Amino acid sequence: MSPWCGRPPPLSWGRAARPRPSRPSACGGRCARDRERTASAGRPCRLLPPDARPAVCAGRLRWALTRGRQETAVREARYTPAGGRVGARTVVLRTPRSRVTTWIPEDVDELHRLHSDPVVMSHMTKGVQDREQTRARITTWIAEHRVRGWSRWRVEDDSGTFMGRAGFGEAHGTGHRELGYLLAPARWGAGYASELVAALVRWHFEHLDPARERELRAYVVPGNEASRRVLEKNGFRLVGASPQAPDQLVYACGSDPAV
Ligand SMILES: CC(C)(COP(=O)(O)OP(=O)(O)OC[C@H]1O[C@@H](n2cnc3c(N)ncnc32)[C@H](O)[C@@H]1OP(=O)(O)O)[C@@H](O)C(=O)NCCC(=O)NCCS
Q1: Which atom of ligand 1 is nearest to 221's Cα?
Q2: Which residue's CA is the nearest one to ligand 1's atom 42?
Q3: Long-range own/partner contacts, residues 116-121 (CB < 8 A, 24 or more apart)
């Protein structure tokens, strides 16, 4: 029986100690090593019923799943200094009164309530969004967080009640991270956004992405005075108008003002 089929190989297999077998590709029911072995031993892998024809051998699939889970855990540990989980969501960071978490697909209704509110979206360049657009955005944010460890995240209060969203996106192809945030109107004027932005700025400088600029950017529509105030209180300075987005003001922050 092939080592792939009996049990998944340990991740620590060193080349010097034991050469790593080449990855078996789709084996039509038997991996390459099985074919070699069974040709001489004359018996099939016991994990694969003779009539089963999976795309990959069972051992390889189990190994990939185990490895995938371990890699995800390592990545999340690296990107979650405040750590922990709330239900199915991972906590990315905490502020004194709120938590920033990853999304699950079921969050679409809560976010749609904000995305469909013309008052909330009046200063957002994409404007009001329908349920399908909101669902697509959550799907993208879940994938982005898995792949690169940062995206736009969900914000909740200490009791787990949804408050809005905040996090990072790509700044109009300039190579910078762009900070963004949006809270439910019931929470406005109580200092939540200022707290969140302070924590996100700290997170940014503690988790710099080597593939991107150090400076953190934020884009604000002129007239969004609350947002401008939140940024200025947290060390952002007005850089000017954006050549990539001429209808917005560019704010930049080169270092964590709290340090
Ligand atoms: C922008 C937003 C996140 C602010 O949230 P918030 O929790 O009310 O913000 P805070 O309470 O932390 O701070 C708001 C600050 O702006 C000030 N402010 C509010 N409205 C203002 C106005 N019209 N003019 C001047 N200052 C104003 C507040 O006084 C406060 O400053 P202070 O703490 O010095 O008193 C919230 O209004 C929101 O979600 N808006 C819709 C989405 C949005 O515009 N996102 C930003 C896109 S760039």
Answers
A1: 48
A2: 182
A3: 117/185, 119/185, 120/182, 120/184, 120/185
